[in-house]
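Supplementary Text 2. Reproducibility record for the structural model of the 333-residue chain.

All settings were left at their defaults, and a single model was retained for analysis rather than an ensemble. We include the record here because the model underlies the residue-level annotations in Supplementary Table 4.
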Amino acid sequence: MSSMIKIAVDAMGGDNSPEKIINGIIKHHSINKEAFYKIFGDEEKINKLLKKKINKNYFEVVDTLNKVSSEDSPLEAAKRGKDTSMWLAIESVKKKDCDIVISAGNTGALLVISKLNLKMIDNIDKPALSALWPNKKGMSVVLDLGANIECSSKNLFDFSIMGASLYKSLYPLEMPKVALLNIGSEELKGNETIKETYKILNDRKSDDYEFLGYIEGNELMDGNVNVIVSDGFTGNVALKTAEGTANFITAELKNALGGSLIGKISSLLNMSNLKKFKKRLDPRLYNGAIFIGLDSPVVKSHGGTDYIGFSNSLEVCCRIIKGNLIEKIKKNI
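Retained model, structure tokens:
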């Protein structure tokens, strides 16, 4: 079992936990036998849910009754004590008992407790929150999504390197294509920070990624760029806008096809295509934000996702470790 990917799991974070967390582990284990799950949470509840569905060689439960709540401020969560499921899961990565940690709990608390426990990678000043977005040709890595409201050109350059390294870890056969999110594609557009970053990236030649300049918000889904870099304020606004648009489209489509007899007949005729379209916009497929810049990777599953979404973020954990993300960042930075 020593060659297995060891995932520290905070089983008490997010809606409907630990049920969805354990069901997510069961689903993930059914398709991937390379992972060992070190589960932190209420042992009695967890064992009832597992009910011998996974061989004992693949998991360990650490009985942890205290937990970080969704209402806690990051400071309150850190003060709550070092016996919470979130803290102990992160600490197990710090102690090198596990390779990676995942939680569906309070995002602010996860970022603060991770920063308190884990060191930064040398020469990186700030960690960034990144996530996967669908595009016409596959997937993109987007960062920062809210960890840093204000960023220097050095921070944005670091995010570019980290984003390219993450993309290469997840998609080893593809070349990362990096662009800065901006209000125009011309070199003169944008604030001084983004223009400085453009110059740094443009002057620095690399075999590990291709720098394609600026990208505007309406081009994010085109697929010509697969690593999109911004400060946390802009990135978070872009993320929420994209999520809202996807929800609007799926809801309106459902209404249009379910309202009238003609709509119902046409929806039956197009059911196969509609299912493909709906699946493409299913946020569970892209679940799992990654907190990068620390010397161990931290994955944040969406608090409101279900067990399928959580299972998908466990698979992201495995791909990050198999792709040697931290080593790639250290080499490229």
